[in-house]
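Course assignment 3, question 2. Fill in each field.
Student: A.L.
Task: Predict the tertiary structure for the chain below.
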Amino acid sequence: MSPFSVGTLATIASMASQHHEALDRLRAEAAGFTDEPYLVTVTTELRPHCGVVTVDWDGPDSRLVVHAASSWARSEASGHRQVTLLWPPPMPGGYSLIVDGLASTLEHEGDEILVAVAPTRAVLHRPGHAAVAGSACGSDCVPILSS
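Answer field:
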C-alpha cells in the first residue's frame, strides 16, 4: 500500500508527464543550435569559468552529456554541481538557449571527461520586449523548462 493518496499520486504523475514534455521540447529546441555550447561553472575559488564543450543527449535519462577535454570540468562538477550551458544565437537577433542544471562526473575516456548535466531550467532569451506577459524577465524570454 502506498503512503500517498490517490490524488497525490495523480498530481505526481501529472508533474512527471509535464517535466517529460518540457524535456522533449528542450531537446527539439536544442537541435536548432550548434553541438558546442559554452559551459559556465564556478571554480573552487568561487570565480566563474567558461569554456566551449561538445554535448549530446543521454538517451532516455534526458541528461546532457558534456565532453570536456580538461580536468577543471571534473573538479568543478564534483565541487559545485550547479552549471549553465549557453548556446549563442544561430543568427544575429536570434534567441540564445540557456540551460541551468546539476552536473555530475560520469567517466573518463582517455583525456576526455564526461559530465552529465540534468537540466533544471531552460529558456530561450534575446534582448527586446517581453514575449510572455507578466514575465519577470524584461527581455524576450521564452521559458521551456522550470524547476
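Instructor remarks: The radius of gyration is 17 Å. The chain has two helices and eight strands.
Grade: pending
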